[in-house]
Specification:
This protein is α/β, with parallel strands linked by helices. Helices cover about 55% and strands about 10% of the residues. It has three domains: about 5-80, 2-Layer Sandwich (Gyrase A, domain 2), CATH 3.30.1360; about 105-350, 3-Layer(aba) Sandwich (Rossmann fold); about 370-545, Isoleucyl-tRNA Synthetase, Domain 1, CATH 1.10.730.10. Strands 7-6-5-11-12 form a five-stranded parallel β-sheet, with helices on both faces. A four-stranded antiparallel β-sheet has the order 1-2-4-3. Strands 8-9-10 form a three-stranded antiparallel β-sheet, with no helix packed on it.
């Protein structure tokens, strides 16, 4: 049952093709309106008279209870009794709003170089992508999440060299700290740079000992990176390694297919000519190989994209990239077009900005994600203790993580991907504004109402307040919001919906007695509505990658 569908069907039966509907500015004017201006112009009639004619020729059906012409508009009113009964049943289901898609999706996201710890800016990639994955799975798709590991190159060779100097089995943080030192020394020491490049040469020429060392170092780094993301509930299904493409048959096949589009440059490198695409490049050539014929990153990236096309097997193929990678993506897309292959769908995001002076960082130039996570938990702990001064130990720590990580994620998700996020703690942890704690608290409030009320029997729905009807209508929007998110990958609209829904529930809570309502039919109806809200908001939080706490 869908009110908008029912209205559309009635207008189609009246001979109106592709009717455009909108919400009236005033609830008294109905729940949906059809403006007659364009149709009247086509027919050469008066829009006010046309609205009267249409409304008199249509009889209410389905969820439409009343049709009235007001000026040049045909206004449709929803049958709230029918609609409420239907929604109260549907909203109790775990998959309410979902299971509308089929097929599969491959999505590659985050893919940070092993020599770099995750920082706040790149965390936006993982957080947005994780929500997209959750939405698509909830919608009914099989989703395979990939992480491309750039495990070769000079930077990784420096990381391997740093690890050899440390000896033993250093952990992720120790490796990275010493890597920074090696990076500094290389700038001042040409012989050291030659030693590092020699490691890379040996790797690319099949030295088994060096290959094993590279694999061990990269494995430690990848585990260190994913451990951080796993703490935020972000997981990956497949880790794909760049090194697998060194000397592969696929690279040779790609070079054959691109032969007519390549040439040697003055350094003897094989380069791909992209001049016909007018890309924003100083020179329209991208190197594919070194002068000795060994592959460079761009060629291996083309190979990885060819593999992803094969792995996706005709399903969706998505990559999530920062806006600073737009040119690289356009280059890959151009290269794939030469081979008559489809490029993945790209989702680009912009940066996270931090007000100056708000945070310190060990590196001095970037804010590490681990530091940001620690600070989010600590600040959440302070807020919790203001409200629960006697809460201590494990219970306090777990709640601080749920609220802190939720605040961090929601502050990023509520902003559309193409806009910068300016992160402010006072907004993120505000229990009264558009924030995760505000939404989480509304869930806890609904949970408490139901716990206080105990068991109840719902014989007949009886709603008497506008706030009840407003909440029902807001709950009903979830399927449409999810369909739009699954279509355009704009998860900020789901984040906004979560806030709007929580706001409607809190208004309902303020205006309507629930557990202590004396009328048994009204009481049971409001408890059923509270339960529907609790189920829906918990699902929405999950789709945003945010946990619902048991108390606050």
């Amino acid at each position: 049952m869908n009110f908008e569908d029912d209205v559309t069907k009635l207008l189609l039966k009246a001979g109106i093709k592709e009717p455009k509907l909108s919400a009236p500015p005033n609830p008294e004017f109905g729940d949906l309106s059809f403006a007659c201006f364009e149709l009247a112009k086509e027919r050469g009639s008066n829009p006010v008279e046309l609205a009267k004619e249409i409304s008199s020729n249509i009889k209410p059906a389905g969820l439409v209870s009343k049709i009235i012409a007001i000026g040049p508009y045909v206004n449709f009113y929803i049958d709230m009794e029918k609609f409420s009964a239907y929604l109260m049943t549907e909203a109790q289901k775990k998959d309410f709003g979902g299971k509308f898609l089929r097929g599969k999706t491959l999505i590659e996201h985050t893919s940070i170089n092993p020599n770099a710890p995750p920082h706040v800016g790149r965390s936006r990639n993982a957080i947005i992508s994780d929500s997209i994955v959750r939405i698509l799975r909830f919608a009914g798709q099989k989703v395979d999440v990939h992480y491309f590991v750039n495990d070769i190159g000079k930077q990784i060779a420096m990381l391997v060299y740093a690890t050899r100097e440390l000896k033993g089995k250093p952990n992720f943080e120790e490796m990275l700290n010493h890597y920074i030192e090696i990076n500094r020394r290389v700038l001042e020491n040409a012989p050291l740079e030659r030693k590092i490049l020699d490691l890379l040469y040996k790797l690319e020429n099949g030295d088994r000992e060096i290959k094993n060392l590279f694999e061990d170092v990269v494995s430690t780094c990848v585990k260190g990176q994913t451990r951080i993301f796993n703490a935020l509930g972000i997981k990956y299904d497949s880790f794909d390694y760049e090194s697998k493409y060194i000397g592969s048959k696929l690279l040779k096949s790609i070079l054959r297919k691109l032969k007519t589009k390549t040439k040697k440059d003055s350094d003897g490198r094989l380069v791909l000519d992209l001049s016909e695409f007018n890309l924003p490049m100083k020179e329209p050539f991208v190197p594919l190989t070194r002068n000795d014929g060994t592959s460079l990153y761009f060629l291996r990236d083309i190979a990885y994209n060819v593999d992803k096309i094969r792995w996706s097997k005709g399903g969706k193929n998505i990559v999530v990239l920062g806006e600073d990678h737009k040119l690289e993506f356009m280059q890959i897309k151009a290269a794939l077009s030469f081979m008559k292959l489809p490029a993945p769908e790209a989702i680009h995001y912009t940066f996270i900005l931090l007000p100056e002076g708000k945070m310190s960082t060990r590196s001095g130039t970037i804010v590490l994600l681990t530091e940001f996570m620690e600070e989010s938990v600590e600040k959440a702990r302070v807020e919790i203790m203001k409200r629960h001064p006697h809460l201590v130990g494990k219970e306090l720590n777990e709640l601080a993580k749920i609220i802190g990580y939720g605040a961090l994620k929601y502050s990023i998700l509520k902003i559309s991907a193409e806009k910068n996020v300016t992160f402010r703690w006072e907004e993120a942890l505000n229990f009264e504004g558009m924030s995760a704690p505000y939404i989480q608290y509304s869930f806890v409030r609904a949970k408490r109402i139901l716990e206080k009320a105990g068991k109840y029997k719902l014989k007949k729905l009886k709603f008497t307040q506008q706030e009840e009807l407003d909440l029902i209508k807001e709950i009903s929007k979830l399927p449409d919001v999810l369909r739009e998110c699954a279509k355009n990958y704009q998860v900020h609209s789901l984040a906004k919906y979560a806030y709007d829904l929580a706001l409607r529930f809190n208004l309902f809570y303020e205006k309507c007695r629930v557990a202590d309502e004396p009328d048994p039919e009204i009481r049971s109806s409001r408890l059923a509505l509270s339960n529907a809200y609790k189920n829906v908001i918990k699902n929405v939080l999950f789709l945003l990658g945010i946990d619902a706490p048991t108390f606050m």
